[in-house]
Design a protein that fits this description.
about 290 residues, alpha+beta, archaeoglobus fulgidus dsm 4304 fold, eight-stranded mixed β-sheet, 7 helices, about 35% helix, DNA repair, endonuclease, single-stranded RNA binding
Length: about 290
């Protein structure tokens, strides 16, 4: 239902010029790992000092050794904050949705920033990175994180949002280190994860029946999120804090962002945008893989 409705929503700004697609894709491909490290260093300068995480440079290790990746997730989980800690004294003024699309060996990350009160668009950007990590459930941050950080780095400093909302897990993760938590800890910004299915945890049945109703999601004797009925006739969605947001505030923010669709506006619009970039990129390169 969401996909059908999404095709009826016009994109307010041109997605991009064809030449811009080539420029971004070529630049990302040439950058390689060295370019990624340089970009990450640049983005890190825009956030508070992360001296509290001595291993921060290794939050995206070059090795794909499982033990090393698990160590990283333990670091992420140990530094994740499930309390409300927003930069703005008056709370959240802007919120951004983040979503990825895939074509050939490329990962496209789209970010759309909205005014939190009105949910009107303020800014949008994207990045295209070469996929260098396989799809492995519970390790998505290592696959998609590079493109997300690249896209975030392209946002004007004065347009960076107060909170990022991802269509991925937060602390509702086997090691409490989903993608929303991983990126939140790396950038030290508030994040929320919203998904369509439960990765881990259970809730008390029956499922929420009325729009707006919810049930706590519990994993390892810890409340890690909510099962939320967001639209009539659709299965519930899963809402979880990522970093610097409490469990209770996470669901209130998502409720505020619902506009009659199953998914909240930030991630719904980011999904539309990322797939529009994918179509343009695929048409330019005569490929329609994935």
């Amino acid at each position: 239902m969401d996909a059908i409705c999404a095709t009826m929503i016009p994109i307010a700004k041109p997605v991009m010029r064809s030449a811009e697609i080539d420029s971004v894709a070529d630049g990302c491909s040439r950058a390689g790992n060295g370019g990624w490290l340089e970009l990450r260093s640049m983005v890190a300068k825009t956030v508070p000092n992360r001296s509290d995480i001595p291993a921060m440079p290794d939050l995206f290790p070059s090795t794909h050794d499982r033990a090393a990746l698990l160590d990283v997730q333990r670091i992420v989980a140990s530094h994740a904050c499930a309390e409300d800690r927003f930069n703005e004294l008056n709370g959240i003024k802007t919120i951004a949705g983040v979503s990825q699309a895939f074509v050939c060996d490329k990962i496209i990350s789209g970010i759309i920033t909205l005014d939190y009160r009105t949910l009107e668009e303020k800014e949008r950007t994207y990045a295209i990175e070469t996929e260098d990590f396989p799809y492995i459930p519970t390790f998505l941050a290592f696959r998609e994180g590079k493109a997300i950080i690249s896209a975030y780095g392209r946002l004007p400093p004065d347009e960076r949002p107060d909170l990022l909302m991802f269509d991925r897990c937060g602390i509702n993760h086997p090691r409490f280190a989903g993608l929303a938590t991983h990126i939140g800890v790396l950038l030290d910004i508030p994040t929320i994860g919203v998904t369509k299915s439960i990765l881990c945890g259970t809730y008390r049945h029956p499922a929420p029946a009325n729009v707006g109703d919810s049930r706590p999601l519990v994993y390892a004797n810890r409340e890690v999120g909510w099962v939320l009925k967001s639209r009539e006739g659709c299965n519930p969605i899963i809402v979880a804090p990522g970093h610097r947001v409490s469990v209770n505030t996470a669901i209130e923010i998502v409720r505020h962002c619902l506009r009659g669709y199953r998914l909240p506006e930030p991630t719904r619009q980011a999904h539309i945008y990322a797939n529009a970039v994918k179509r343009m990129y695929g048409a330019k390169n005569h490929t329609w893989q994935r």
